[in-house]
Amino acid sequence: MNTVNLEIQSLTEQHLGAVLELDQACFGGLWTLEGYQRELGSPNSDLLGLYCAGSELKLLAMGCFWSILEEAHITIVAVDPQFQGQGLGQAMLFYLLSTACDRGLERATLEVRVSNVEAISLYTKFGFKTAGRRRRYYQDNGEDALILWLGDIQYPKFQTTLAQWQTLVCDRLRLSGWQIPELGNNNQSS
Predict the structure, then answer these.
(1) What is the mean pLDDT of residues 20-42?
(2) H or E stretch including 100?
(3) Longest C-alpha distance within the chain, in Å?
């Protein structure tokens, strides 16, 4: 099986068209152009994209978190529906957590729809625990959100955990024909 290289990038204004398309495909237009522009302009926001390398770069996945005090509040993890189930969500989450660790943040939190079993499974695999529930959190249908929490990101054992996740992510991507050179070095280009 031939492998296709992936690359992680910090997203910029030039990526906004692809970001809006992916948002529409995954969330039906969760955030507006202005919302993403605010994210890009904020020093407290990390917006990352996972691309298929080659002459025609395609945004396959994206993720975002806000740095709030010592916390990485993950706001988005999205994978193009055509490429779901291939390990790209794991790779995106790995990069978000690795970036949060590099930023010196101590924990990560997020909200997820109670019905989103696949996402909950992914977050649980990466050590997130349920910390609470937000009743009728989602305005589109009044669905509850689970609040998930991952602590101890700055503890030395988290580096070991990141290395284990790196192996897990690389192995999963390889099964689907993907690879990310030097995964875990977190050298994002613009």
Answers:
(1) 94
(2) helix 88-102
(3) 46
Per-residue pLDDT tens for 41-100? 999 999 999 998 775 678 999 999 999 999 999 999 999 999 999 999 999 999 999 999
For residues 111 and 147, the answer to whether their CB atoms sit within 8 Å is: yes
The helix/strand count (H/E) of the chain reads as: 5, 8
Q: Please, what CATH class does the domain formed by 4-176 belong to?
A: alpha beta
Within 13 Å and on the Cβ side, how many CA atoms surround 84?
12
Of 72, 90, 46, 77, nearest to 190 (Cα)? 46
Q: How many Cβ atoms sit within 10 Å of the Cβ of residue 130?
A: 13
Question: Exposed, middle or buried, 102 (CB in 10 Å: 0-12/13-18/19+)?
Answer: exposed
Q: Is the pLDDT of residue 184 over 50?
A: no
Cα separation of 76 and 66, whole Å?
10
As a whole number of angstroms, the distance between CA 78 and CA 189 comes to: 20
Cβ proximity of 25 and 65 under 8 Å: no
Which residues are within 8 A (CB) of 22 and not within 5 positions of it... i.e. 6 or more apart?
59, 61, 62, 78, 80
Reported pTM: 0.90
